[in-house]
Write a structure and sequence with these properties.
By secondary structure, this protein is mainly alpha-helical. It contains 5 helices and no strands. Helix 1 packs antiparallel against helix 2, helix 3 packs antiparallel against helix 4 and helix 4 packs antiparallel against helix 5.
């Protein structure tokens, strides 16, 4: 029964996500696919996956413990915070902090998490900002 409840919540979330994607304003100079396509694809995948849970639920689902669920919710809160801090702190700093935290929560030690955070942040910045020339959020230091 709990799988079906999760499936219904997923379908509702997918419908809301697709509806919000259809509200994205398109520029007159966008590519043929447009900015709405990718979010709609993600919404369709979420909806189809949720329908699977409704149609074929696990007879004896094993849910995560409360502590594990809280840890996932806290990681989601960190990602929301990342989205809000990105324009203020810039791409490199906020991505490094977020990647460091998530690496630590995935089992890396503090030093390894700091190295992973810095490597991920600088690597993505070099690839997307320098090589591909995409515009990334600039922080107080200009990168």
């Amino acid at each position: 029964m709990s799988d079906r409840i999760l499936g219904v919540i997923g379908v509702a979330l997918a419908a809301f996500y697709i509806w919000q994607a259809t509200l994205i304003q398109e520029s007159f100079m966008s590519d043929p696919v447009g900015p709405k396509t990718f979010p709609i694809i993600i919404g369709v995948i979420l909806g189809l996956s949720s329908i699977y849970f409704i149609i074929k639920p696990d007879p004896e689902p094993q849910w995560a413990s409360v502590g594990r669920t809280m840890e996932v919710l806290f990681a989601a809160a960190v990602l929301f915070g990342y989205a809000y801090a990105l324009p203020i702190g810039g791409f490199v700093l906020t991505t490094a902090i977020t990647a460091m935290f998530l690496s630590w929560r995935l089992g890396a030690g503090p030093v390894q998490a700091a190295i992973a955070g810095a490597t991920i942040s600088v690597g993505i910045y070099v690839l997307f900002g320098v090589v591909l020339g995409l515009s990334l959020a600039r922080g107080p230091w200009g990168f």
